[in-house]
């Protein structure tokens, strides 16, 4: 199956008489252009290019792929593992050259924020009250960290719908988070279905790494502030002011 995949007989019969020599297979990981072969009995099979699809999706015996033919030999594919669960793949973040340069230069353009008790930025109240007393310069939202906020790569942090829509975050797929020390993390911004409709959330490896690297824990409060100086940029930057729970 690694080098060649035969297509179902019934499907091949439906396409009888049509000239077919190539196909496009699309998945959540990208698109693959695959050469279509034909045997003497008129059956079709994927050949050149199929092995790249197999390798990229780490297909093994017991896995299966559901193909939806969209017309003109264009297929949408969903990959499942042997437990019948959809396979999860590492998030691949690809920035444009312009965006990449902007991210590389961000550290030089931002002032370092610090919210340590030594500098007197905390008033010694609760983390939530400290966050509420802070005066951000841009749009912001405040959230309290829970045990499920970043425990693993599958964890996520909800972004208030009003904040996401009013700041046009619904069109973004990646945001850059900056902590008080101006260190940067590229984080996937995804849309999650819920009973109340779709909502935006920070999710995946990038968010988990931010959570771990900043030693966030249950009870900490974070103020997420949108950086307005980057408003015309291709990169959405959010500075995260962290107010830790002191135990």
Report on this model:
The protein is 19% helix and 33% strand. It folds into 2 domains: 76 residues, Beta Barrel (At1g16640 B3 domain); 147 residues, DNA-binding pseudobarrel domain (At1g16640 B3 domain, Beta Barrel). It contains 6 helices and 13 strands. About 5% of the residues have low confidence. It is of the alpha+beta class. It starts with a strand and ends with a strand. Strands 7-12-13-9-10-11-8 form a 7-stranded mixed sheet.
What's the CATH first level of the largest domain?
Mainly Beta
**Amino-to-carboxy terminus distance:** 57 Å
Order of helices and strands: EHEEEHEEHHEEHEEEHEE
Query: Can you tell me the CATH architecture of the largest domain?
Result: Beta Barrel
Number of helices: 6
Q: What's the arrangement of strands in the largest beta sheet?
A: 7-12-13-9-10-11-8
Domain module tally: 2
Beta-strand percent range: 25-35%
How many beta strands in the DSSP annotation? 13
Structural class of the helices, strands and pairings? Answer: alpha+beta
Helix % is 10-25%
Q: Sheet with the most strands?
A: 7 strands, mixed
Any idea of the CATH topology of the largest domain? Answer: At1g16640 B3 domain
Query: What would you call the shape?
Result: elongated
**Overall mean confidence score, pLDDT:** 80
CATH superfamily of the largest domain: DNA-binding pseudobarrel domain
Question: Which blocks of ≥5 consecutive residues have pLDDT under 50?
Answer: 110-121
